[in-house]
Each structure stands twice: as structure tokens, then as C-alpha cells.
Amino acid sequence: KNKELYSDLFDIGEEKEGKPIFKKTKEIRFSIEKGIAGQVARTGEVLNIPDAYADPRFNREVDLYTGYTTRNILCMPIVSRGSVIGVVQMVNKISGSAFSKTDENNFKMFAVFCALALHCANMYHRIRHSECIYRVTMEKLSYHSICTAEEWQDLMRFSLPVRLCKEIELFHFDIGPFENMWPGIFVYMVHRSCGTSWY
């Protein structure tokens, strides 16, 4: 929405008990119009760059910011429902001067799993948000549907005016002008329809 790319989570190849360690660092944020990642985000194409500094699209600001030296890049879009929702990028292949076609295919599968994970996370967030709205709504309904002891006493003492007892049976009866009597009229109508033994 703000036409920016940012990242603060990196897999730098370290492992602990056989599992990869993802490290958080200072957030890197830059315009979607810049760099290899920006190009991939805009176009949705896969870019395999064997020499980063020889490519004019490479954004050197990232290396200056991180102190890292980028040699080669494999950048892949994360696509969900036909739209690019993110970008994943591998840099500096350990063995070899550039990423191979096999690397591209394997990384493409990784990007698919990323898309699924992000989609599930987004759906979970929406469900939790809907649950919060539901709880607030139910709390409001509960608050407004429970009468106080004073209101209950007023309803017990309420007696429908004789004039209304006749008018309420008519098809064209308009309850609007009797707003202050609505609770009592409702109780009267329930008793007339269902009897007083149940309610």
C-alpha cells in the first residue's frame, strides 16, 4: 500500500539442534522502485543475478546499510491469488559462482510454501478479528437485554391502557408513538400469544 519493501528476519545459514535459526535485525526498508527485490515485486518475475554489482538494478544502499557484500542473488516473488504479496531472496551461494536452475526450482517451491503460510496467517488474523467483534457485540447485546431490578418492577406493575388493548389488535396499529411503553407492550404481546405460564 505504501509502495515500500521491508524485512527484519534473515536466515544466515546457522543451525541449532539441526534446525535453521532465523535472526531479527534492524529493519531494512526501501522503495519498491529500487533494487532487485523491487523489480521482482513490481513485475512478479524471477531474477537470477550472477554478479550483483554488475547489474544496474542492484540497490547498493542495502550493502552500505548492513555492511554486507552481495555477490549473487536469486530473487523470487511470493504470489497469492494472482498477486505478488511479498518477495524472498537468497544471496551469495556458498558453492558456485551463481545460482543454478535447480536452485530456482527448489526456491520456487519454498516461495509457494511462504505464500500458503502468509495466507493462513492472514486468515487466522481475520478470524481472530471477527471473534473480537463478535464478543464485543454479544457483550453489548447482553448489557442491553438484561433489565435492572427497577425496570423489572416497572414491567410487573405495567398495565396496558384500555384504548391500546383494542388498537393493538388492529392491522394498522402503529407502535411508534408509544416508545416509552415498548417493553411493556412486548411483554403484553408475548403473554397474549404464548400465555403467562411460560414467560
UniProtKB/TrEMBL annotation:
Alphabetized InterPro entries for the sequence: GAF (IPR003018), GAF-like_dom_sf (IPR029016), PDEase_catalytic_dom (IPR002073)
Transmembrane segments annotated in the record for this chain: none
One BP term from GO: signal transduction
Superkingdom of the source species: Eukaryota
SMART domains referenced in this protein's UniProt entry, alphabetically: GAF
GO MF terms held by the record: 3',5'-cyclic-nucleotide phosphodiesterase activity
PDEase domain mapped to chain residues: 148-199
UniProt name for this protein: Phosphodiesterase 10A
The organism of origin for this protein: Mustela putorius furo
